[in-house]
Amino acid sequence: MAAQPIDRDVKPEWRDALVDLLFQLADDDLLVAFRGSEWLGLAPHVEEDVALSSLAQDEMGHAAMYFGLLESLGLGSRDDLAHLRPVAERRNAIMVELKNGPGTYLEQPHYDWAFTIARAFCYDVMESLRLERLKSSSYVPLRDVARKISGEEKYHLLHHQIWIRRMALDPDAKTRLQAAFHRVAQDAGDLGSTGAHTAILEESGLLPDASGLTRAWQDQVQEFLSLQGLSWTPVRETSTGRLGKHTKDLEDALDTLSEVYRSDPLARW
Amino acid sequence: MEPTDSLQYQQFMERINRGDRIEAEDWMPDDYRQQLIRLISMHGISEIMGALPEKEWVPKAPTLFRKLAIMAKVQDEMGHGQLLIRVAEDLMAPLGKNREDLMEDLFTGRLKFHNVFHMATPTWADAGVIGWLVDGAAIITQGMSLSCSYGPYARALARIVEEEGFHIQHGESICMELAEGTPVQRQMLQESLERWWPALLMFFGPPEGNQLSTHQQKNLDYKIRSKTNEELRQKFLTKYVPRIRSLGLVIPDPTLSQDPVTKVWQYAQPDWTLFRQIVNNQGPRSQARLGLRQMSYQEGQWVRRVLAMTTPAAV
Fold this sequence. Notes:
The complex is a heterodimer. Chain A is mainly α. Helices cover 63% and strands 0% of the residues of chain A. Chain A has one domain (12-102, 109-263): Up-down Bundle (Ferritin). Chain A has helices at residues 12-39, 46-72, 78-84, 94-97, 113-134, 140-167, 171-186, 198-204, 213-227, 248-257, 259-263. The longest helix of chain A is centred in the N-terminal third of the chain and has 28 residues, at 12-39. The model of chain A has no long low-confidence stretch (mean pLDDT 96). Chain B is mostly helical. Chain B has one domain (7-308): Ferritin, core subunit, four-helix bundle (Ferritin). In chain B, helix 3 packs antiparallel against helix 6 and helix 5 packs parallel to helix 7. The longest helix of chain B is centred in the first third of the chain and has 29 residues, at 64-92. Chain B starts with 6 loop residues before the first helix and ends in a 7-residue tail after the last helix. The mean pLDDT of chain B is 95. Chains A and B meet through helix 1, helix 2, helix 3, helix 7 and helix 11 of A and helix 2, helix 3, helix 11 and helix 12 of B.
């Protein structure tokens, strides 16, 4: 049975689940965009630099839309939500917060291209599955955003699939990519988790089939990789990041992305 | 080099003087080609090196809106670099050179990049000043080059200049917000202007006086450029001095004045010895940025190798 559409007023017992879900979506995209923006000017070739920046801009735009939905629920300004919330309140998956390489974007980055592609692909598969479900969310404002975003995400997935196909044809690149997927899998357990309110998300129709995400995602990743002769290390679902448990990488990322805003949150920037 | 009295050369000069556009596959004298390669590869590589100083503020941009805007802005600069390098690559092809050679020339110091991109960007205000005034200076030079006799460069510039127009608005918007903001924000902006002022004057190159360099003269004769360094700098001052002052900023040059009759600006000369050091990669951030560029280039080598492989037939 299709859930009753919710235009504005969310039942009080569903509200926490909605807010938590929106933070998961917003925080995921914010971190994906942030990590993408760190690559700017450092990609392996100029054409890819331009392409990668478009993807990061899309994700930043999506994060802004999700934070906008939270703002309209009365949780505070979207910039406060994006920049000032402490680590323990962040709901993004661990995988998206991990840094691009051992250094920072300013000093000795040593960014890892294979890791970047492997992670982006895994994230894009999850995002497309999640958006597919959100397109029929009972919460109308979220459903509208999901419909708007889906069109762009198709191209993100395509971009990373092309890279993987290409890299899988070269023995050295394939080895690097395989190692990268292995590394990504180690921290991907919470990517398909929807946190503390999964049952309510399903019952309310806010995110239909929330509990089926990890499985659907793994099937799809595994299928694509095996076609390229790559293997996937199966992961068990955890809830780490979705419950606010994060790594030092997120702490550092938040320090950087909010450095200017935090210097005076009352000022106009 | 072709003798200047050869028929081919004379026909070429007739085309130049008629205002014809020269295309990549047309015959051209060697020194015309060399001047273009020199100019366009320097311009292209400057766009790519120029992404780095602003990029330092991209992940830190204060709001979601500013983050989006500055990402798009720096992406444009990389895009301009790509466009220009493609134009330079066409010119270098008959000489058996490609963009790998350009990168090597950058790392060995043979290929210079613009003085402004060697400077430090310690605060968010620098991101605003670059967008507003550095791009403002660039649009004056590039606006002149829209009439360049080499068609591919002129067409690339038409697109670049249009996008630079947005960049100036983007930079001006950051600067206006700071100028109208808290005392700390206003001070941040004033200090940034003071930091950038000499570099902005240097942007156009040393004043010629009565003596044009060989390169300058050739570029004027070939209609690759149509104005001198000093003419461009005067244009910049006329356009931006009133705007800078209207934001309540103080330009760090008490001698700056415009002659009410001739409209010529008097200004304190920046240190041209320092300018030469800067463009020879001895500026405050020259080595750090070259190091970053070189590291990312070398570490991306395996990726470019994969891309260069022949694609197997589709199955």
